[in-house]
Amino acid sequence: MRITFLGTGTSMGVPAIGCTCETCQSEDARDKRLRSSVWLTWDGFHVVIDAGPDFRLQALTHRIPRVDVILLTHAHADHVFGLDDVRGFNFVQREAIPVLASEETLRRLCAMFGYMFQADPYDAASRPRLRAFSVEGPFYLHGLEVVPIPAVHGAVLSLGYRIGPIAYLTDFKTLLSVDKSCLSGLEVLILGVLRKRPHPTHLSVDEALDLLEWIRPRMTYFIHISHEMKHDVTSRELPSNVHLAWDGLVLDVDHEPWRCQGKS
């Protein structure tokens, strides 16, 4: 499995508009953060988790050839406002693309983007073709089991996803009644960590490190990073197996031990 970090920034991205802080003025490319999203591919299958306002640029920059499934964590703007750009993949693939999310997230999408889910033949070319599926429990994607991980993000339910050897958990403060076995044996945990200071709806660095003591993944990469964390400074303060991710980072993880034969 190949993991490509399309974006690692918080809702405003980094640099933030109008800000002159050290991080926003940094010349380090790792401090330039588009809105958080990842592209996963294994055995020719392509999955994108979240499609924020920067999705078009991310898809072009990394030359994503197709999208077989989109997984959504929740319906905040920085995670879904790029869904309209899925149209380009519809044209290339000549098919509707499945979008999987919680029932709450799908309701919010229908309210925000009603035109995307209408069966109007006259505007078919001007809207993305999406097939919405509600995530209500574990399911399989191209031979790997996907386990949804529910979490609290303010007043919103946010879903994380365990996919074989990796897990993606962003935008949350508290996990909801998760069996530890759902997150055991992880090779890579991708974790949303906003900043060092406490925040009411996001993890701080100290809270994240406490959580890692419980989960104990082999490697952890922080995403959804604000401009309050400069890459080189913060990286020196973290344990050796915990890192700030950066836009364009690519990881390869062996998914074969987690393959479920006969499942798709």
Topology of helices and strands:
Elements: E1 2-7, E2 37-42, E3 45-49, H1 55-61, E4 69-71, H2 77-80, H3 87-93, E5 97-101, H4 103-112, E6 130-134, E7 139-141, E8 144-153, E9 156-163, E10 166-169, E11 174-175, E12 188-195, E13 203-204, H5 205-215, E14 219-223, H6 231-236, E15 242-244, E16 250-252
Parallel strand pairs: 3-4, 4-5, 5-6, 10-12, 12-13, 12-14, 14-15
Antiparallel strand pairs: 1-2, 1-16, 2-3, 7-8, 8-9, 8-11, 9-10
Characterization of this structure:
There is one protein chain. The protein is α/β, with parallel strands linked by helices and 264 residues long. It has a single domain, classed as Metallo-beta-lactamase, Chain A. Helices cover 17% and strands 30% of the residues. The chain is built from six helices and 16 strands. It has helices at residues 55-61, 77-80, 87-93, 103-112, 205-215, 231-236; strands at 2-7, 37-42, 45-49, 69-71, 97-101, 130-134, 139-141, 144-153, 156-163, 166-169, 174-175, 188-195, 203-204, 219-223, 242-244, 250-252. The strands form two sheets. Strands 7, 8, 9, 10, 11, 12, 13, 14 and 15 form a nine-stranded mixed β-sheet that branches. Strand 2 (37-42) and strand 3 (45-49) form a beta hairpin.
